[in-house]
Amino acid sequence: MNLRVFILAGEPSGDRLGGALMAGLKQLEPGVSFDGIGGPLMAEQGLSSRFPMDELSVMGLAEVLPKYRHLKRRIRETAEAVLETRPDVLITIDSPDFSLRVARLVKEKSNIRTVHYVAPSVWAWRPKRAGKMAEVIDHVLALLPFEPPYMEAAGMDCDFVGHPVVAEPQATGAEIAAFRAEFGLGESPFLLALPGSRRSEVARLAPDFGGALQRFTAEHPEYRIVVPAAAPVAGLVQDVLKDWPEATVLVDPNRFEAASAKAHKRAAFAAADLALAASGTVSLELAAAATPMVIAYKFQWLTWQIMKRMALIDTVTLVNLVSETRVVPECLGPECTPGNIAARLNALAADPGAQLEAMELTMQRLGQGGEAPGLRAARAVLDRLPKS
Transmembrane region positions (predicted)? Predict the structure, then answer.
C-alpha cells in the first residue's frame, strides 16, 4: 500500500520547507501520493493545491479580521478533506493559527497521525504553547538543535532535522565579481543594510538605520552602503533612501528575472564586509555567508512591554542562541537608536573577525555538511510512522 500524505503550508517559507520535504519523501518512498494546500514549490513536487496558498498568507490583526470568516471556513473545509481522504499522515507546516486549528478538528474525529514542521519558540516565550500543541500534534520536526527537549517534555515526539539555510547555495567568485561590476562597487568595502521584508518593519526601522549609517560613513568614508531589498518593499525602501548616505546602492529584485535576483542577493551577502540587519532569520543567512553583523529592531510600544515581561531569553539573535555565545551585538526596543547602532557598527568594523567562529559553529549545529534538511525531515516522518 502506497503512503498517502496530506500536507499543508500557508506562506512562502512553509512552501519551501514543504517542497524539500516532499522531494525527500519521494526519494525514500517512491509511491507516495500528496494532497493538501501549498505553493509553487510544493506544486513542482506533485501537489495540486485545493485552494491558493495565498489565501492563508495573512499577518497581523488588522489584516486577519476582514478575512476571519473566510479563513475559518477554509480551516473547516481543510479538516473535512483530511477526514474524508483518511491519509496515513497529516503534515502541517508552520502557520500555527491555521495549521493547529485544522489538526484539532482532525483529532476530534479521528486518530490520523499529525506531524507539525517548525517547533513553536516556547524557549523564547509562552512556554505553555507546547502543552496546547501536544493535544493535537503527535510529532514535531524542529529546525533548531535545542528544541526537541521542550517538545518531548510536553508529550510529543520530536526530531531535529536541520535548518534549510544550510542547504542554500552560496555565491561563487564569478557571481561576486559580476555583482560588484554591475552595481559599480569596484573593490570598495561595503556594508549591507537589511531593514526588513515587511512594510511596517521598513517604515519603523528606516529612520534609525539611516541615521546610524550616516554616522558610520562619516567615520568610515571608504564604505559603500548596499541594500538588497525584499521584493514587496523595494519601492518603500527606494523612498526612504533620500535620508540615507549618498551613493547608497539599492538592489531591487523586481528589476531582474528571478534567477538573476537570487544571484544578486547571494553575491551581496557573500561580498559584504559588515551587515546591519533587522531581527529575524536573516541572521542565519548572514552567518552562512560568514558576514559579521549588528542586529537592530524597534518594536511597537505595547509589543515591547509584553516581550520584556514574558521573554525567557536574553538575546533574540539565532546565531547567539545556537552558538551559545553573545557575540552578535543587538540594539533592541529603546536601545534601537542611531547613536547606539553606529557605535556597534564602529566596534564591529574594528574587529569583524570576532563573530566568525560563532557563525561557523552555528552552521555546523544547524546541520551543514550533513544530509539535506528536507531528506532528514522525510526520514524522520517515515521512521516515526506506526508499523503496519
Answer: none
Q: Give yes or no for residue 64 having a pLDDT over 60.
A: no
Residue 356 has pLDDT above 80, yes or no: yes
Residue 300 makes CB contacts below 8 A (sequence gap 6+) with: 204
Beta strands in the chain (DSSP E): 4-9, 33-37, 89-93, 113-117, 139-142, 157-160, 190-194, 224-228, 249-251, 274-278, 293-297, 330-332
On whether the CB atoms of residues 305 and 232 are closer than 8 A, the answer is: no
Burial of 156 (0-12, 13-18, 19+ CB in 10 A): buried
Contact in structure between 123 and 100 (CB atoms under 8 Å):
no
Q: How many CB atoms lie within 10 A of CB 242?
A: 9
Task: Give the whole-angstrom CA distance, residue 177 versus residue 193.
Answer: 20
Cell 548572514, located at residue: 286
> Looking at residue 57, what is its pLDDT?
63
Q: Which three cell numbers stand for residue 99?
A: 495549521
pTM (2 d.p.): 0.88
